[in-house]
Structure formats: C-alpha cells, structure tokens
Write a structure and sequence with these properties.
The complex is a heterodimer of chains A (155) and B (578). Chain A has 155 residues and is of the alpha/beta class. Chain A has five helices and seven strands. Chain A is 41% helix and 17% strand. In chain A, strands 3-2-5-6-7 form a five-stranded parallel beta sheet, sandwiched between helices. Chain A has a two-stranded parallel ribbon with strand order 1-4. Chain A starts with a strand and ends in a 7-residue tail after the last helix. Chain B has 578 residues and is of the alpha+beta class. In chain B, a hairpin with a 2-residue loop joins strand 4 and strand 5. The N terminus and C terminus of chain B are likely disordered. The chains are: A alpha/beta (155), B alpha+beta (578). Chains A and B meet through helix 1 and helix 5 of A and helix 9 and helix 10 of B.
Chain lengths: 155, 578
C-alpha cells in the first residue's frame, strides 16, 4: 500500500450552519466529492492514525491506495478536542506533521492567533461574516493550496 | 601618764591575737596586761616554732601578731617570713628585750610594723591601736579595690549580655545567650530562664537552662529541660509584684511553703541550696522568671541579688522587644499570605472574565454569521423572485448583523485591552497612524474626508497594538460623526512640552456639547441614535482605557457645533524623540 496526498480538503467543523455555508461556498469552486466534512478533531486524528498504522502491515498491500488530506481546514472552538490541540497533535507526528493546516475561526483573539502560529499553522484566517467574502476566502484558499503550491510527499 | 580612760580608745571588738613567744609566763603576763588595759581579746594563741606558726595562720584568722625577737629555734624574722608567705596583711609588732639598732632597722625593713621594748606598755598600746587602725584602713582600701574590680567585671559581663541580646534573633536566642553568662556573672552552678504563657500567666515554659557543675551525675542532672512547661502559680503573685525570691537571709533548710511548692513543680530540690528567683516584669506584666542556684556557696550576696535584678530588668526589655518583633514578623507573614491569596483570587477572576468574554464574543459571532450567511444566500439565489420590500428587509438584516459584528469585535478589544499584559516598546506614531489609515481607506474614501497629518509624529513608549486600537477608534469616531453641512476635514498633529507628548486629532464634525465631554468616554454611552450615526458606544471607552493602561491621559475639546479635537497624552518617562 502506498500513502499519497489526495487532492481532498478535510474541513473539521462542528457547527451545522457553518458546514452548510461552507458547502455552498465550495459548490461553485471544486467537485463536492473533494471536500470531506468531519464533525470533530478526534475523527480526523483517528482517520489519519489508521492510515499511518496500516502502512506498516505488509499483508495489506492489495488494499486500494489510501489518501491523506491534501489540506485541512480547522475550526478552533469545538467540543472535546480544540482545533489548537488537534494542530499540536499533528505537528508532533513524524509524517503527518507535513500536512498543510489552515485555521478558520471566529476568534480574533491575539492569544489564539499567536498560539496557532507558534504551533506551526500554515495560515490563520478569521471567518468572514458576509457570505460573498466567505466565498472569496474559500476561492483564495483553494487556488493557492490546491493549485499554486507544491505539496509534500508522505513516503 | 595613762588614764583609765584609755579603755575607751579600743574601736575594735573581738580581737584575735597571735603570740610568738617561747615563754608561757611572758605570754600570759602580756595578755593579762593588755586585757587590763581594755583590749578586747576574744581569742589568742601562743606559738614558738615555725610549724606552729604556719598551722595557726592556715587554720585560723588573726587581727594582730605580737612576736618575741629571739627564741630557741625560732625568731621574729622567721615568723615574718612565714606570715609573708601566707600573703596576709596582719600587723606584726616585735616586743623584745635589748636589741641592736641595726637589728631593729632590719626587722622594720622585713615587714615588722613596730619594735617595742619588753615592759614598755606605754608605747605598746598606742602602737597596737595605730597599727590596727592602719590595717583596718588598708583592708577597707583593698575591699574597695575588690569591689571596683568586681564591678568592672560585672559591667563587662552585663555589656556582653547587652551585645548578645542585640545580636539575638529570637526570644530563645536571647534567653540562651543570657543564661550562658550567668555562671560567670553570679557564680551560679545552675541557671534557667522560664517564659510565662501569654494567655495563662501562671504557666511558664523553660526557654533555656545551663548547669556548670563538672561531672554531673545523672541523678543531679537538671530536670528543667528546654520546653518543659511548669506551673508557677505558687510564686506568681509575689513575682508579679516584682519581688525577688531568695533565701539569702532565711535558713537554707526552711523554705517557705510557696518556694517548697514551686520546687515540687520544678522537680528541683532547693533545700540547703541558695537560690535567686528574679521576676522578669515589663509594664506590670510578668514575662518570665530567671532562676539561679549555687550549690557551692551558702549564700548569694546582696550585691549578686542586685546584679540578678539588673539582668532580669534588661531581659524584660529585650524579651518584650523580641516579642513585638516576632509579632510584627508574624503579621507581615500573614499579610503576605493574604496578599498572595487575594492576588490569586484576582487572577482567577480575571482569567474567568477573560474566558467568559472570549467565549461570548466567539459564540455570538457564530450564529450571527449564520444569520448573515443565509440572508446573503436568499438574496443571491432568490433575489430576482423576491416580492416588494423583502429585498430591503434583507438589506436591513445585513446591516444589523454588520453592526452586531462590529460591536462584538469592539467588546472583545475592550476586554483584551483591560486584561492583556502590556508590552511596552518604542512606537512610532507616524507608522501606527499610517497602518490605521490603510485599514480605514475604504471608509475614508466613502466619507470623502480630507486628512492632514503634520509629520513627523514623535515616537512614544507604548503597546503597539493598543496604540493602533486607540487611533483606529478615534479616526472611526471622526468619520462617523461628520457633519452633513461641510466636507469632513481631519487634522492630526503633535506637540511636545516638558517631555510630554500630546497627539491631537481635530475634526470639523458635529462636535460634542461640553456637558457630555466626560460621558462619551464611558462604555456604551452614546449621544446619538444609531440610525443617524454609526458607532456603538465602545470606541471612546477603548481610547480611554487604552491610554490609561499606558499611563497616559485623553480628553476632548469641543464647542458642540464646529467640530471636536481629541487629544492623547503620553507621560514624560516614556518619551523618545525620533
């Protein structure tokens, strides 16, 4: 089995309204199949953990190719694990630390912003209030992180 | 020539006479004669050899030696030598038969006080009286010298005690340093210091004790171990009245009931011992007692009792001061603990408040975004199909959410301003202002405002972020409250006076009536309806809180008609010119 980077965006968001608005914003930009929504950080952590763990089992070579997220959009304020905790966890992993992570949060608190950058976030974005701006922001993100940059490899 | 009245001139009583004489008859005759003349001889002894002389001097005390000159196997010179070897100052008069002048001179040089021919009582009696008188004076002088010597020594020890007390850091140290010196000062063989309980005055704790007897048998060891608590109620009243208890004048074996009771409490046997129990009294309060026992002597002298009192009085002052010092220290420690406690409480409260504000601003924005998001979606997707005024209503929803979002952001800024720790650095007001003007470019264009900056603005010491928040709030305020009658002009300039930097932002807007000049800096105070002017009543509160946190001040000058001039002032110490 080979671990590769997908072209998929993982959005970790607990607010159903935000998820709805995200979906609408993404709709006109990329194939909806390429956006995966997770309701909390633990889902993301166990998903990635499973992929990295299965890589070490030689008998599963026949399994289809497993894909890590190409980009993670992370909310901060979530039940159980906060976005900052999820970010910290990723940055401590041997391979998973390479995954680009962007925080998209309502918080404008200096403490949150600085903490995120200290933990090694790739970008911190404050969720815009106006839908049109939200669309613009998502458009920028997709353009830059899925098209402009050269992604890392995971093997 | 000698009247019977010569008896009157004997000032001594109970004279003890040592006779160096080989003839019993001569000796008896002389005693008889002397007694007849009124000499008060209570005791006499005749010796005729060196051994007898030495024995007499070693085992008895004498006021006068009368010696024959030449005896078989002994002489006045030999007797004088023996007397000198005993270092005794006793008048030595030679009474003898014929004697050569040179012998007489030699005898006087050897230390004899006079030389008188046998049978010449007329000369002998005055000589005896004279020599006794002189010996008495010499003794008085020696006693005075001894007293002076003792006084100097005691003074030295008392000074030593003073120094020890000054150097001591605690009541216990004071007690120990004093007790250590009592052996030398009073000749005590055993001393102890007890401190009375501050609450129960009849209870005392052994603070320090010391024994000076060599090779103390276990049975003899003091039962007054440190920290032992003793009931001193039997003697409390007498000590409390400042009375020193001592058995100096009473029979050593007949202590009073009170002392006997105290001894029982102390587990000490004071029978047959001399002791001084000195009260330590400060302003009618019995602080403790000092106990001195001497097993080697039968009594303490009145002088020693007095010295003990002196020490006890010194101790009273020292102990009281140490007590005060310890109290002060205790209070200081308690105060520190209380301050630490309050600080912790305050920190917790601040942290809670911070968490609360953070949560509120964050959680309020999320639903607001939903409201705005769905309203925008309706307009985008169904705009064309919407009937009548519904598009206007959607716009109103949009505006409302925008205002609400601003309000939440300002609230968050305000709480951060209050709670965040300051980071003071040199800040260029020119740079800070440029950043704010960039952020407000859209609004400035919309208001068609003409902004004049009198560059260069100085550098101040402040928090970069707070300076930005303040300037942003002041400019937004000027943009919001512009007059509809004239194009908006904003002028920004600075002055430096006596080291203080003042930044002024002057506009030609609607102005603020004088009676509201204080009110506008309070949070949520607004003078105008939100429909007429933008603003949420937090901006100027941010300005005031921010500048005050940096140690500065702010204010407004306005006639209420032709505009407002807001000023900010940074304190002297934080000024650094560009």
């Amino acid at each position: 089995m080979k671990l590769t980077a997908s072209r998929e965006i993982f959005v970790v968001e607990d607010d159903p309204d935000d998820i709805f608005l995200y979906r609408r914003a993404f709709a006109s930009l990329i194939d909806p199949d390429r956006v995966r929504f997770l309701r909390n950080g633990e889902e993301l952590v166990s998903y990635c953990n499973r992929l990295v763990g299965s890589q070490r089992r030689p008998d599963e070579d026949t399994e289809p190719e497993q894909e890590l997220p190409g980009l993670i959009l992370l909310d901060i304020k979530m039940p159980k694990k906060s976005g900052l905790e999820v970010l910290e966890w990723f940055r401590r992993q041997e391979i998973l630390r390479r995954i680009p992570i962007i925080i998209l949060s309502s918080s404008q608190a200096r403490s949150d912003i600085n903490a995120a950058y200290e933990l090694g976030v790739n970008a911190y974005v404050v969720k815009p209030l106006i839908f049109a701006e939200m669309q613009k922001t998502i458009d920028h993100i997709c353009n830059f992180w899925l098209k402009t940059i050269t992604p890392p490899s995971y093997h | 020539m000698h009247s019977a009245g010569s008896e009157d001139i004997w000032t001594e009583s109970d004279l003890r006479l040592l006779l160096v004489e080989d003839s019993v008859d001569d000796a008896d005759l002389l005693i008889l004669e002397l007694r007849r003349r009124g000499m008060p001889i209570v005791h006499h002894r005749r010796v005729e050899t060196a051994d007898q002389m030495a024995d007499a001097l070693a085992n008895d005390s004498w006021d006068l030696v009368i010696s024959d000159h030449q005896m078989p196997g002994f002489s006045a010179f030999e007797a004088l030598d023996i007397l000198k070897s005993y270092h005794l100052d006793i008048p030595f008069i030679i009474v003898s038969g014929a004697i050569g002048e040179d012998t007489a001179v030699r005898a006087m040089r050897s230390g004899a006080h006079d030389y008188i021919l046998k049978g010449n009582l007329a000369r002998l009696l005055p000589a005896i009286q004279r020599e006794l008188g002189e010996a008495r004076q010499r003794e008085r002088r020696r006693e005075a010298e001894r007293a002076t010597q003792r006084y100097v020594e005691r003074l030295g020890i008392l000074h030593d005690i003073d120094r020890a007390i000054l150097a001591a850091h605690s009541i216990r140290e004071i007690a120990q340093s004093v007790v250590e010196r009592l052996g030398l000062l009073l000749g005590s063989s055993h001393a102890a210091l007890l401190l009375t309980d501050r609450v129960v005055g009849t209870r005392a704790t052994v603070l320090a004790e010391r024994q000076w007897l060599p090779n103390i048998a276990p049975a003899e060891r003091s039962p007054l171990r440190s920290n032992r608590v003793v009931d001193i109620s039997p003697v409390f009243t007498r000590l409390h009245h400042g009375e020193t208890l001592t058995n100096i004048e009473s029979d050593l074996n007949e202590s009073t009931d009170e002392i006997r009771q105290l001894c029982t409490n102390l587990d000490l046997d004071l029978d047959g011992r001399c002791f001084i129990i000195s009260p330590i009294v400060y302003e009618n309060r019995l602080l403790g007692l000092m106990l001195n026992i001497d097993r080697r002597h039968s009594t303490f002298s009145p002088e020693q009792v007095e010295v003990a009192s002196d020490v006890a009085n010194q101790l009273a002052i020292a102990l009281q001061q140490a007590y005060f010092a310890e109290q002060i220290e205790k209070h200081a420690v308690e105060l520190e603990q209380r301050v630490a406690e309050r600080t912790r409480e305050l920190q917790e409260a601040n942290e809670e408040l911070e968490a609360f504000t953070y949560s509120v601003s964050h959680d309020l924005r999320a639903p607001l975004r939903s409201v705005r998001g769905y309203a925008d979606l309706i307009q985008d997707e169904f705009g064309d199909e919407l009937p009548g005024d519904s598009r206007l209503y959607l716009e109103k929803i949009g505006e409302g959410t925008h205002r609400m979002d601003n309000l939440i952001q300002d609230l968050l800024s305000y709480s951060q301003l209050r709670l965040q720790s300051l980071r003071l650095w040199p800040v260029s007001l020119s740079t800070a202002l440029q950043g704010v003007l960039d952020r407000l470019r859209e609004e400035i264009r919309e208001a068609q405002a003409e902004i004049t900056v009198h560059d260069p603005l100085p550098r101040i010491t402040g928090d970069q972020e707070i300076v930005g928040v303040i300037l942003h709030a002041l400019l937004k305020n000027a943009l919001s409250y512009r007059s509809s009658e004239r194009p908006l002009q904003i002028t920004i300039s600075s002055t430096t006076e006596e080291g203080r930097t003042r930044l002024t932002i002057a506009d030609n807007g609607i102005g603020i009536p004088a009676e509201y000049h204080d009110q506008i800096f309070r949070i949520f105070e607004r003078l105008h309806l939100s429909d007429d002017y933008e603003g949420n009543g937090i901006g100027l509160a941010l300005v005031k809180k921010g500048i005050e946190r940096m140690g500065g001040a702010c204010g407004v000058i306005s006639d209420g008609l032709t505009g407002s001039t807001f000023w900010l002032e940074w304190p002297q110490k934080s000024i650094r010119h560009e």
